[in-house]
């Protein structure tokens, strides 16, 4: 018998498989085998504009001028962004840019340095 992971919500050891999902009978939580404990898809790979795989902590460069929403300023082409963090969602890069502050970027507008 294969060992299934404990429930990520209540840490119950009594999980069982139902098709492609794992289910916890104690709290009722359902999750996919491909997800980690925070619910992130382990098979999702985020790539930059050139197709290079991005990782947390990478340094990237902006490849086109980007309008900053809610501001009249523009994030210029060639701006270097250090120590990125990958997140789920449409804007999949969380970062802090000198002169702008905290910001979310789309991976299609950056290239890995």
Automatic annotation (TrEMBL):
This protein's name: Protein YjdM
Organism: Cohnella terricola
All copies of domain Protein YjdM N-terminal, residue ranges: 4-32
Pfam annotation, one family: YjdM
Protein YjdM C-terminal domain sequence ranges: 46-113
Family: Belongs to the YjdM family.
């Amino acid at each position: 018998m294969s060992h299934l992971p404990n429930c990520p919500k209540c840490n119950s050891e009594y999980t069982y498989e139902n098709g492609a999902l794992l289910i916890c009978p104690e709290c009722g939580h359902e999750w996919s085998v491909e997800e980690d404990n925070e619910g992130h898809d382990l098979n999702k790979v985020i790539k930059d504009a050139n197709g290079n795989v991005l990782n947390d902590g990478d340094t990237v460069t902006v490849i086109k001028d980007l309008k900053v929403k809610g501001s009249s300023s523009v994030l210029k082409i060639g701006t270097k962004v250090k120590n990125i963090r990958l997140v789920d969602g449409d804007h999949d890069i969380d970062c802090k840019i000198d002169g702008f502050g905290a910001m979310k970027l789309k991976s299609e507008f950056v290239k890995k340095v």
